Structure formats: structure tokens, C-alpha cells
Amino acid sequence: TPASAERPQERPTRPAVTTQLLDQIYEELEAIEAIFCRENEFSLHSKDISSVEFAVTTSPIASPDLKITVVFNLSANSYPNEPPSVSVQCSSLTRVECDSVKTFLKNIAESCCGAPMILNLLTALQENEDIRGTPRNTPTLENDTSKGPITCVLHLDHMQNKTRYLKTIKSWCEELDLFGRIIFCVHWIFIILQGNEENMKIYLQRNRTQCVDVDSSGKPCKERLLSVLYQGCHHKKFMDFEVCQVENIAELRSWMANCSSLDLFEDVIVPVISKR
Q1: Contact criterion met (CB below 8 Å) for 260 and 236
Q2: Which of 81, 34, 76, 24 is nearest to 56 (CA)?
Q3: Sign, Cα dihedral of 231, 237, 241, 246
Q4: Average pLDDT of adjacent 10-residue blocks, the chain of 276 residues
Q5: HEC per residue, the chain
Q6: Quick one: which of 160, 125, 149, 165 has its CA closest to 239?
Q7: Residue 83 near residue 91 (C-beta atoms within 8 A)
Q8: What is residue 23's predicted lDDT score, i.e. its pLDDT?
Q9: Angle, CA 60 vertex, CA 46 and CA 88 arms, to 5°
Q10: Cα–Cα dist 9/139, whole Å
């Protein structure tokens, strides 16, 4: 028997490039799970040595009662150099409308090839105002952004380095000509911003993609738990950006009433604070 026949057969190993891409996919998966951490928002379907499949349920800002589930399949053999496999499910939309959302996401994905893109796709879906099939019982707040400056209400989960985070937010608002308030109430942090729609998009992109805080070990980190609660027109126009500290929910309600923003409190803030 030839000596070569006596050698045990070597197991095939994954190419280093595939391993590196898979590690990047796992890192992106952890970030998405951290951002979409509320009940029923994130679901992991499968995870193996070559691909990951998961689902995220979210809503367009203009139609918060419209729950759309997007199933992603990321393959280390192609992603992110090619768009991921995507399917769309929503009981409030027709099959044609779901296919339209799928096409919309694929078009966005094609412009993002070469870099992690899932957060970009989900953000685009949240900001899409052309999705049909909107339920009749949507909030009564005005969402037409064609009449001038828009208002955006954000929720931050926490701040490890408050001084650094506030300095960054204030500098961005000054640069982008955005006004409003960051509100600290017990363990909740809300940001109300008003300004040009395009500058608002730039702010949101920065807040999600640039290092603004530090992690538990003190290393700079990106914001993974920023939620856009509302975006649309609102009559109150702030003239500067300041920090607002209130002691309890009743004081927060009173403050927002004085700012002619009681509707934002009832329709946007209350659903968040009622979950704790």
C-alpha cells in the first residue's frame, strides 16, 4: 500500500476570508440585536458556519401601528459584497405591497454593497413614507414634512459618559442648525430636535455610526440603542439646544405642556414610559 494512502484524510478548512466575513456578520448581528431589543423585535432563526438568518420587526415612523417583519439571510460567501436575501411579512399589507417593500430594500442594499448594511436598510424602512396599507388608527400627530422644519423625538437607553455624550450632541446640533432639548427624567433619556429634514438625517446617521459614548471598560463605542419615536411637523419651535432635568413623570408632563408639546407626551412619550 502506498504511504500516501495510509495518511488520514485531512478535513477541509474554511478560507481565511470567509472566516473573517463570518466574524463581521456575527458582530453586525450582535449590534442589530442590541438595537432592536424590545419584545418581539428581534428573532434569530438559524446560525451556522456559513450563514445567519434572523428577523427584525419594525414600523415606519409615519405609521407606528404598521408592524413589518423583515427576514434577512446573510451568507459569508457573498455578504456584504452582494445584497442579502430578504423577505417581507406584514399582515396589514397585501402581497403586492410586501413585494414593493422588498424591492425598495433591495434597491437600498445595492447602493450599500461592500459594507455592513442591515441597519441602513432598517433605518430606510422606518423613514419610508410611501408604504401603503396604513391602518386607520394611526396617531393623529401631523407627519407632513413639506411645511417646513420637522420635529424628531428620540429615546436613548443610557449614557456611560454623560459629559462626553452631551458635548458631542451639542456640537452636532450647533453644526447642523438643530434646536431642541435633551430631557433626563428618572432613568429615561429623550431628545426632542427640530430643524431641516436633511440635517436631521445627517444627525441620526452620526448618532448611530460614530463613537459617542464609552463602554463598560471605558473604550469609545457607538450608540446601539437609539430609537426614533416620532418624526414629523410640530408647531413648537425651539430657539436653542439645552439640557432639561425633571424629577418625575408628572413634572415631565407639565414641562411638555408648557412647551405646547402635550400631544407628543401623550402619543409618543407615554407608550415608552408605560413599558417600565
Answers
A1: yes
A2: 34
A3: negative
A4: 50 57 88 86 91 93 87 93 93 88 89 87 85 44 55 87 89 93 93 90 82 78 79 81 93 90 89 80
A5: CCHHHHCCCCCCCCCHHHHHHHHHHHHHHHHHHHHCCCCCCEEEEEECCCEEEEEEEECCCCCCCCCEEEEEEEECCCCCCCCCEEEEECCCCCHHHHHHHHHHHHHHHHCCCCCCCHHHHHHHHHHCCCCCCCCCCCCCCCCCHHHCCEEEEEEECCCCCHHHHHHHHHHHHHHHCCEEEEEEECCEEEEEEEECHHHHHHHHHHHHHCEEEECCCCCEEECCCEEEEEEECCCCCCCCEEEEEECCHHHHHHHHHHCCCHHHHHHHHHHHHCCC
A6: 149
A7: no
A8: 87
A9: 35
A10: 65
Half-sphere exposure of 3 (CA within 13 A, CB side): 0
pLDDT of residue 12: 47
**How many residues does this entry show for the chain?**
276
pLDDT reported for residue 148? 62
Q: In the block, which residue shows the cell 446560525?
A: 47
Q: What is the CA radius of gyration of the chain?
A: 22
Residue 133 φ/ψ region, left for φ over 0, alpha for ψ in the -120 to 50 degree band, beta for the rest: left
Q: Are 159 and 188 in contact (CB under 8 A)?
A: no
- Confidence at residue 13, expressed as pLDDT on a 0 to 100 scale: 52
Q: Model-level pTM greater than 0.85? A: no
Can you give the pLDDT at residue 34? 83
Predicted pLDDT of residue 221? 76
Q: Determine the Cα–Cα distance for residues 26 and 7; give it in Å rounded to an integer.
A: 36
Cα–Cα distance between 236 and 230 in angstroms, integer?
14
